[in-house]
Structure formats: C-alpha cells, structure tokens
Write a structure and sequence with these properties.
Chains A, B: Belongs to the DtxR/MntR family. Chains A, B: GO terms for molecular function: DNA binding; DNA-binding transcription factor activity; protein dimerization activity; transition metal ion binding. Chains A, B: It is found in: Cytoplasm. Two copies of one chain form a homodimer. Chain A is of the alpha+beta class. Among the domains of chain A are: about 1-70, Winged helix-like DNA-binding domain superfamily/Winged helix DNA-binding domain (Arc Repressor Mutant, subunit A, Orthogonal Bundle), CATH 1.10.10.10; about 150-220, Ferrous iron transport protein A (FeoA) (SH3 type barrels, Roll). Chain A has helices at about 10-25, 30-40, 40-55, 70-95, 100-110, 115-125, 170-180, 210-215, and strands at about 60, 65-70, 150, 160-165, 185-190, 200-205, 205-210, 220. In chain A, strands 3-8-4-5-6-7 form a six-stranded antiparallel β-sheet. In chain A, helix 1 packs across helix 2 (about 30-40), helix 2 packs across helix 3 and helix 4 (about 70-95) packs across helix 5 (about 100-110). Chain A is globular, with a radius of gyration of 19 Å. The interface of A and B includes residues 90, 104, 107 and 116 of A. Chain B binds a DNA duplex through helix 3.
Chain lengths: ~220, ~220
DNA sequence: ACATATTTTTAGATTTGTCTAAATTTTATT
DNA sequence: AATAAAATTTAGACAAATCTAAAAATATGT
C-alpha cells in the first residue's frame, strides 16, 4: 500500500506538467502536449504515463490522453505548494527578484519533508500567493479563490489592483520592473485604443501607455 | 572544459563521502570504506570512482585507494558548506531541533545555485558553525579553526565551553537535550573516576555525572 | 468515406547507477 | 616465502529514464 508513495524527481515533474496542462483546458491531456511542456519525446511520455498509471497517479487509456487521479492531483498540489512557498521565501527572505526564483524553486519543490514545508509556511506567515500572484494551495490542497480578470478586460474608467501575471517569464517580469509595475499597484484604465488594443492607464500617479500584449498578461482584482 | 562541471546527486554523495573519510585518516581512502559509508557495494564504488577520476575530481590508481584532487576538494567543500548552512537555517529560522536537520540537509545540499547559497549565508549572518558545532567553510573554502578538545581530555578542575559534538547521531543529540547539555554551556570537570572513566562535571550550576562515552563525544574549547 | 496527416504507441537501443558472482591483486599469517 | 585472507576489480546483468525509427491508431479534409 505504501510502496507507491515515493516518487522520483522525474515522476514529480510529469505529475506537475499534467496538472498544469489539465487545469487549463479542463480535460484529458495529450501525450504531445506533455512532451512539448517537458521538452522531451512523446515516446518517453508514453513510457512514464504507463508507470504513473500503474502507481495510481493518473488514469490512462491508450490513445485517449491522460488525467490525474485524486491521488495524482493531491501529489501535484503538494508540489505546487512547495514550489510557490519556496518562491516566497526566496523573494521575501533572501531578496531575490521575482524573475530569478522559478529555476531554483524547480529544484526546491522536490525536497521531501512535510515538516519542512509546514515550518516554511509558518515562517513565511502562511502566504496565500506567490511573488507572481499565483495562489498557494493550503496543506489541505485548497486555493484561496479570487475574482481576478485580465487588465485588457477592464472597462474604461474602472480600476483594479494588480494581483498577478499570466506570463511569468523572466523577460516579462523584467519589463514590469523596468516600468515600475508591481503587484499591489492600483491601476485605472483611462482609455483603450481601438487601433491596436493598447491601453492608457494611471498607475502610481503616473499615466502611461501599455500594449495589448502587456495588458493581457496582467491580472487585476476589482476594488 | 565546462562539460564536467555538472555533477549528479550520486556523484556529489561520493565526493562528500570521500572527503569525510579523507580528512579523518589524512591518506587515500579505501574502496570498502566508501562502500560502507554509503551503504553500497564495493563494485559500485569502483565504477563511480572511475567516472569521478575521468572527470578530474579524484586521483585514482587501481587497488591503491582514492583521494580528492583540488577540484574534488573544492567541490566537497561547497557541498559541506551548503549542508551546514541549511542546517543552521532549519534550526535558527524554522525552529527544528538539532537532531532533525541532517536528513533534510542531505537533500538541500544538492540544490544548485551559487547565488542561493551566498544569499542564505548572508541571511543567516555568515555563521561559522552549524548546530552541531561543525565549522562551515567560507565561500572560498576556508574553515575558522578552533582549538577544541574532547571533554574527557580536560584535566580535573579545568573548564571549557561546549563547542561541538563528535557523534552527531540523533540518539546522542536527544540524550544531550534531555540532560540539558547544549552548545555554549560552560563546563567544569570536577572529578574523574579511574574505575570506569566517568566524569563529575559542573554545568549550568548543577553537578552531574556523565559516562566516558558521553565525555569522549563532546568537544570543548578552553576558556 | 477515403486518403492523408497527425498523434500515439511499440520495439529496440543507450546511459546511469546499481547489483551479483567470479577473478585478480594486495595484505596478513605462519 | 608460501599460503590464506581480505580487498578490489572485472564481467555481465538489471532497472530507470531516455532516445530513434517504425508501426498503429486517430483525426482531418475534401
């Protein structure tokens, strides 16, 4: 029964990839999608899926895609929890910037110690969101749910507080730093250009113009 | 040239084992000794030694034992440094007790990020010793050297400050906790029994009797 | 619906780290 | 110094995770 509790780093990486792909389209995940996400070959994915299926982490029928079982989802959530807690640690305690933490958290998320995870959580003050605004599941696997929307969906003259990014790649995060856009900032949409979808916004008492691409990767919460 | 910089967890574990065995007897390390230390088979050790030799971490002649090269020593020191810094983190920041930290640090020592190690060092206030009193090498690989001796070597009516343990196994550490013996405590040797080598000591204003076995696993620094 | 394209799986090979069992070398003993 | 004992290495095998190339299943387009 407890024989299957140990997971290798690789198994955990697959579970996490399936989780992230699964929450997006809310259906079974394609072999090729996993292969692309993990930068590996579809044949390798098939092999691993079989193994994870035998261990009870995913349900799988040949050619029909894969989805996480309850056990698999639970496992994925603990990995996501660890990843995001470590990101908070790196930013809050070690003064890393939000574009530097992902790669290190990819390593730290595999550290096996429930007590460590829980102590870290406590040490950080039970944070609900990571440095990119992504929610941190509780020990029980529950997310704080928020009613966030993309900035480009906000109507003219409406406001919101910046609560997250959709694209958390280093280039985008560095762009935001450079233009002094940070989580917690109060943003008012002043105007939208029909021509290119760009937005005129007020942020930190300054009025700036941002492209549609930027606006569609920034989450805000209505105030 | 830089092809050999990446090391697997397993390679790092071997390097660390060779390091620890090497500093003790200050000579080449035997295959069997490594096998025993790592709880593996001598044939596996031979295979790995070959690989580490090809990568330049150890120097090795068949049947003649193995020793770390400068590169290998440097690598070992960074692993030891990471291990001990994480131990300090766990005890100082996350309130772990000193008998719980070794296993977790065994995992954390493999995290690859020089910036993380250095930031952690800074965050912890550049500690010179881990929770067991073992010295933490600096980024440059230098130890703070101390003139510590075992408690059983202290003459009657002489004193010392408890600075470390020779045996850092959980049972011994728990024993010390139970009897309220901690690093930093001021200890005076009042008497030694010829019969069994046990010592009468004064610690924290209390006089207690400890066995030779205990005394020979406690390091003190002369005051 | 049929042909074609795409996706997925299979079969077989490779690398890493390990093992067992046998062979070899070194060390210890008498 | 010869022989026994111990340590070490070699040879061959295995499991995990990956790959390539080919085969099979599914999806797409007219």
């Amino acid at each position: 029964m407890f024989k299957f509790l140990f997971m290798t780093h690789s198994e955990e990486d697959y579970i996490k990839a399936i989780y992230h792909l699964g929450v997006l389209n809310n259906s079974t995940v394609a072999t090729n999608a996993i292969a692309e996400q993990m930068d590996t070959k579809p044949s390798s994915v098939t092999d691993m899926i079989r193994k994870l299926s035998e261990k009870g982490f995913v349900s799988y029928k040949k050619y029909q895609g894969v989805s996480l079982t309850d056990l698999g989802t639970q496992k994925a959530l603990t990995i996501v929890r660890k990843h995001r807690l470590w990101e908070v640690f790196l930013v809050d305690k070690l003064d890393f910037s939000w574009d530097e933490v992902h790669e290190i958290a990819e390593q730290l998320e595999h550290i096996k110690s429930e007590k460590l995870t829980d102590s870290l959580d406590k040490h950080l003050g039970y944070p609900k969101f990571d440095p990119h605004g992504d929610p941190i599941p509780s020990k029980a696997g529950v997310f704080t749910n928020t009613t966030k929307k993309l900035l480009n969906e906000v109507a003219i003259n409406n406001s919101g507080i910046c609560v997250g990014v959709k694209d958390s790649s280093a280039p985008f995060l560095k762009f935001l730093d450079k233009h002094e856009i940070a989580l917690g900032d109060y943003i008012t949409v002043l105007d939208k250009e029909d021509f290119d979808g760009s937005l005129q916004i007020k942020i930190n008492e300054k009025i700036i113009l941002i492209s549609h691409q930027i606006a569609s990767n920034l989450y805000v919460k209505s105030t």
